[in-house]
Amino acid sequence: MSFLFTSESVSEGHPDKVCDAISDTILDACLKRDPLARTAVETMATTGRVIISGEINTAVPPEKQEIEQLVRETVRRIGYDQTGFSWKNLQIENYLHRQSPDIAAGVDRRGAGDQGIMFGYAKNELGFECDFMPLPIKLAHRILKNLSEARHLGQIPGIEPDSKSQVTVRYNDERQPVGIEKIVVSTQHRNELSLEQIRQIVMPLICRALPENWMPEEQNILINPSGRFVTGGPDGDTGLTGRKIIVDTYGGYAPHGGGAFSGKDATKVDRSAAYMLRYLAKNVVAAGLAEECLLQISYAIGIAEPLSLYINTNRTAKVDEQKILKTLREMTDLTPQGIIRRLKLQNPIYTPTAVYGHFGRQPRPDGCFSWEKLDLVEDLKHAF
């Protein structure tokens, strides 16, 4: 049966993404000083104010003045110098404190930092360079990346940092994309820009983001459908770390576990195990063992080995699903420390993950997005 599926993305200037970026920037600052640092940094941003709280355990904690500077630099890099929210005169309140000794004890014995469930997913969307991601979220991210890059290059004066996109894709009976039904883009702008001017700015950026000949009819592209969007960012809507978890993962096409990612070091399996399962699912699909792969894992606080591991290939597996699962367990160490070692997650690599998704990205030389590597493909092929 054919169906429509919609995913959304938000830009780095969205209030929640400002908070994710601040939390991950502080995490990276801690890891630069101490690779064993443990953090769970939460940020709230509103008109003229940023509030930071959460826990940090590190041998070399950053000074409060350094954290304040990191906050201001992050907001400046995103592009906020507005009357209601400017990097220059933000009021910054810092309530960071040490990690609970009860939680620390579980991690000290190399166990998981908390109980929880995590998911990983990959799909072969035939005919598209989607990095084994569902097409709706991939395109929603790509539209806003184009908008952001043009803004930072000074090519679209009058467009401000806060923006959102939404893409609706039609799928056929084989669960493969066959067309784009609707696109929505809302972007913050300066008062002097008209709706028609904004449309003329945004339409070419949408076109560049889409597969060739996939542009929907003009009436199915909604740009700033509510009209004016002058007051935006944290001045228009309070932001919080971890409130865009579906944007961060698969756009709702696959499940998300119980926790957010940003601000957490890799002892928090909410983050590290989700990265590991994406890595495994992507390698399974890239190896041709299935066209689609969903994995779920669960942990208990203080216990190293996972409690369960589940697979569902949606009837696309070319070999026995349970043999795939058994092979993955034999090939990889799924304890928190095993995941950290394989993916090199104690490096300061997290700031770039705070916007445009944690998955479907290109691995970087510094180790960022290491979970997107395909270095298990040959081993998986040989195992079958």
Write up what this structure looks like.
- This protein has 384 residues and is of the alpha+beta class.
- The chain is 33% helix and 22% strand.
- It is built from 11 helices and 11 strands.
- It has helices at residues 15-33, 64-78, 101-108, 135-152, 195-209, 233-236, 245-248, 269-286, 321-331, 336-343, 377-383, and strands spanning 3-10, 38-46, 49-57, 91-97, 116-123, 159-171, 177-189, 221-223, 239-240, 292-299, 308-312.
- The strands form 3 sheets. Strands 1-6-7-8 form a 4-stranded mixed beta sheet. A 4-stranded mixed beta sheet has the order 4-3-2-9.
- Helix 8 (269-286) crosses helix 10.
- The longest helix is centred in the first third of the chain and has 19 residues, at 15-33.
- The radius of gyration is 21 Å and the shape is flat.
- The model has no long low-confidence stretch (mean pLDDT 95).
Keywords:
single chain; 384 residues; alpha+beta; four-stranded mixed beta sheet; 11 helices; 11 strands; 22% strand
Blueprint of the fold:
Elements: E1 3-10, H1 15-33, E2 38-46, E3 49-57, H2 64-78, E4 91-97, H3 101-108, E5 116-123, H4 135-152, E6 159-171, E7 177-189, H5 195-209, E8 221-223, H6 233-236, E9 239-240, H7 245-248, H8 269-286, E10 292-299, E11 308-312, H9 321-331, H10 336-343, H11 377-383
Parallel strand pairs: 3-4, 7-8
Antiparallel strand pairs: 1-6, 2-3, 2-9, 5-10, 6-7, 10-11
Helix pairs in contact: 1-2, 4-5, 8-10
